[in-house]
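forwarding from the other thread:

> can someone predict this with nicotinamide-adenine-dinucleotide?

sure thing
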Amino acid sequence: MILQDKVALVTGGASGIGRATALAKLNEVIAFGAAGAKVVFSDIRSVEGEETADLIRETGAECLFVKSDVSSEADVQALVQKTVATYGKLDCAFNNAGIDLAVKPLHEQLIEDFDKIMSINARGLFLCMKYEIQQMLTQGAGVIVNNSSTNGLVALPGISPYVASKHAVMGLTRSAALDYAKQGIRINAVNPGGIATESFDRALMKMGITADDLTAMVPMGRIAQAEEVAQVVVFLCSDAASYITGQPFAIDGGYTAS
Ligand code: NAD
């Protein structure tokens, strides 16, 4: 129970990587709930959010679902306030909510799509960090993990707004890590490669490739389960990672090693 008595927040927790990270126990993998944390998670989708809450409670862990949009400053401020009002503090935050949109070369990308993706993946993550850090400063401690992507380290063709937004996550992570390094707040990023989630399936369809095509590009020869990201997030939030800040963690089967 390496996060015993900690309070952990996950954005975009209604499905995929966020749900796996919030869940107490899934396939015996350690996630926030299983690590002993009280879990608050947000999403824009209420039905799937309540489903995730039921799954977490079935395991005996405590949780709170808050319908909240990371691109709304008022929502994000209220999310952090509700977390503290309910559980008294905020120890760990996983800023995970994110979207991808159309696949086409940059000159055909719509300005509206660029603005939307940046408003959620980059500006939304900035808003989350801003209000999480304000709370963590009052406590003198806290840990943040931001969900970037291998596309925050290297690029793929056809998805320039997504790649830009995930590189922005890395810039925010590194800058903020330096801002608060002496104030007890550690900030890192995870950089998942292909992870089996609903949005991953949709992204493959948009890119016109199959899971087998992608697998062929991965040195380990497989895509990953969301729980394999969750475990790294829990590690980074724990005291086992006490000297780690400002770093990317590629969870990509070796994809960015070459
Ligand atoms: P997912 O679609 O299953 O989960 C994303 C969740 O975020 C959804 O539940 C969605 O409703 C929620 N969300 C969307 N917009 C939101 C908003 N404005 N406010 C709050 N919640 C919002 O997808 P996933 O694959 O689990 O992706 C999670 C994160 O991981 C994303 O940031 C994604 O870019 C990143 N990522 C995923 C992969 C992958 O292969 N699946 C790879 C690299 C990075």
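The two ends are 36 Å apart (CA to CA). thats all i got for now
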